[in-house]
UniProtKB/TrEMBL annotation:
This is Environmental stress-induced protein Ves. The lineage of its organism: Bacteria, Pseudomonadati, Pseudomonadota, Alphaproteobacteria, Hyphomicrobiales. InterPro entries: RmlC-like_jellyroll, RmlC_Cupin_sf, Uncharacterised_HutD/Ves. It comes from Neorhizobium huautlense. PANTHER family: PROTEIN VES. Gene3D superfamilies: Jelly Rolls.
């Protein structure tokens, strides 16, 4: 288990230059926004407009703070995402624009390079036992505090801390927190 503390997340401009993103984790570790295999980040959206285009990337978006947004993804019907919405997957290379529902939001972005990695995102509460997983699992604490136990290791996550877990060991969560579980798996034999 490796814990990534919120204070250590890396801040950088959006690919399209219209805002700022907070990078939680990326692979490979020295990857840029054009060369990553997978990336987990948060972004503050304060204006209506286009999302950055990421060729060959699949993306899942979740709302962390704010009233939400209406998402317009090329060749799909518009969808309104709020903090209560399930994480929403879509291709990051499709033309995508957003209209804010009522002011600034902060979102969680999970992105994987198509054909190399795939991902799944779901919301979790701290009182849970999870099945062992193959591949990499990241647990992000959204609100409150959660204790993550993975095999014989445990650690406490505070708001926006993230635990990286690898190996097929049992996982349990305790405490009063809520968050997001991200499963990453390789689509290729390396």
């Amino acid at each position: 288990m490796r814990i990534l503390r919120a204070a250590e997340h890396r801040r950088m401009p959006w690919k399209n230059g219209r805002g700022e993103t907070v990078e939680i984790a990326v692979f490979p570790p020295d990857a840029t926004v054009d060369t990553f295999e997978w990336r987990i980040s948060m972004a503050t959206v304060s204006d209506d407009g286009p999302f950055s285009i990421f060729p060959g990337i699949d993306r899942t978006l979740s709302i962390l703070e704010g009233a939400g947004l209406e998402l317009f993804v090329e060749n799909r019907p518009p969808v309104i995402l709020t903090q209560d919405s399930a994480p929403y997957p879509f291709p990051a290379d499709a033309q995508t624009t957003v209209t804010l529902v009522d002011g600034t939001i902060t979102d969680l972005n999970v992105m994987t390079r198509r054909g190399r990695f795939s991902h799944g995102v779901k919301t979790v509460t701290a009182a849970a036992a999870l099945e062992p997983t193959v591949g990499l699992l990241l647990m992000l604490c959204h609100r409150g505090e959660m204790e993550v136990t993975h095999g014989g290791n445990s650690g406490t996550l505070k708001q926006l801390d993230c635990a990286m877990l690898e190996g097929d060991r049992a996982i349990s969560l305790s405490g009063s927190g809520t968050g997001f579980m991200v499963r990453l798996s390789s689509d290729t034999k390396m």
